[in-house]
Amino acid sequence: MDITCITSWSIMQEQQSLKQRILEEMTVNYSSNLEKNFDVAKRLIRITPDGFVEILVREKLGGKDQIVLYLIGKMYAKEVAYVSDEYVGNGELLERLGFPVGSLLPFLKELRDQNLVRQVKRENNVFHTVPPAKIEEILNTIERKLGTKGRSKT
Are residues 92 and 130 in the same domain? Predict the structure, then answer.
């Protein structure tokens, strides 16, 4: 083997090694956040086969908490292919959560300002989702507010 072959082989090995390390140590899959927080989510929400989210403790929560729970529930619905993506439009939030028309947008703005909701525009529509890294923080905060930590509600 000449030095060029050895050097090329060595570079390829380093790239493979780096690729493997990235896959093993840096790759984040939000479904692992969903799995990690499944028990907490199960105490707070349910999903229907048509992809809608039922909030079990709705009467005890403010609008912003209801929105983020709905969005997290939609992520679980996507995981089981009840829906094609986890993004939720304003119309669905208004209809499913029953908010008065003027209240949704201020709630969403506050949630975006707190980095708890991400907004995506598609054509002339606006959709929302929760950043995967915020799932645990949101669920734990809501559980603390409700004082339901560790209790099961089926």
Answer: yes
